[in-house]
Amino acid sequence: MQAGGFTEPGLGRPHNEDHFGYDLPAGVAVLADGAGNRPHGEVAASLAVETVLAIARNHHGADHTWLESGGEPRKLAQLANQALLAHTESNRRHRGMGSTLALLCVAPAAVSLALVGDSPAYRLRDGQMTALGPGDAADQALGEQPRVQPDLHDLDRAAGDLFLLCSDGVSSALDDEALCALLMATQNDLAASARQIVLEARQAGGEGDASALLVRLD
User: Fold this and answer.
1) How far apart are the C-alpha atoms of 196 and 155, rounded to whole Å?
2) Helices then strands, each counted (H, E), the chain
3) What Å distances lie between residue 109 and 7, 24, 26, 27, 115, CA to CA?
4) Taking residues 185-198, what's their average pLDDT?
5) What is the tens place of the pLDDT at every residue in 52-110?
């Protein structure tokens, strides 16, 4: 598994409410976007990503990814949700904050994707791009209710699969044809390719925070 990403705040915005991260040994990549029209989105997104990575990093075997070690993406999304709720209980000024979640978990023979909110994912395989959600969970957000019900995609795995997790600052600006062309053009430097995706979104008129996280399977 290889990964690389890029993010930048929206035009004229004082801060970036997108956040992403990954842990290669754990086989986990995650992207979060502060829920629109809610306060402190940058806090919510950062906490969601940090919670996911901390749990995955501390609960996988030395020679096994988190998913291979029995990790459950749906449960991990719920734990991130609980972390946001607990934070707002002890930090009243952050009440009302929320975040999307796009969580990719990799094992030797399988891939699992959990989505909460409107941050989508895409897979490129053999020149064909597949959009993966969001579905029923598109109207949900972490930190909103005691429980979340993420959209879960359990997928087979093939060497060379390329996944894109992105915020709506990218997906709302670029249609599937444009995204597929950019994924087809992805080079070995995934961070540089992610940056190009964000720049293309900007040139297409996207004004919000924009993030792209690319994951390629060995």
Assistant:
1) 27
2) 5, 10
3) 30, 16, 15, 12, 21
4) 97
5) 999 999 988 888 999 999 999 999 999 999 999 999 888 788 887 899 999 999 999 99
Q: Tokens standing for 73? A: 């993406």
Q: Which two tokens stand for residue 150?
A: 């993420």
183 vs 83: CA distance, rounded Å: 33
User: Hey, what's the torsion of the CAs at 125, 49, 210, 140, to 10 degrees?
Assistant: 90
Residue type, 188: N
Domains of the chain in sequence order: 2-7+16-216 (3.60.40.10)
pLDDT at residue 65, as a whole number: 96
Q: What is residue 207's three-state secondary structure?
A: coil
Q: How far is CA 186 from CA 68, 113, 128, 151, in A?
A: 28, 21, 14, 27
Tell me which DSSP letter residue 174 carries.
Answer: S
Distance between the two ends of the chain, CA-based, in angstroms?
Answer: 5
Contact (Cβ atoms closer than 8 angstroms) between residue 215 and residue 2: yes
* DSSP string for residues in 83-101: HHHHHHHH-GGGTT--B-E
pTM above 0.90, yes or no: yes
The CA distance from 209 to 199, in Å, is 11
Measuring CA to CA, which residue among 112, 121, 20, 21 is closest to residue 70? 112
Cα(203)–Cα(194) distance, rounded to whole angstroms?
14
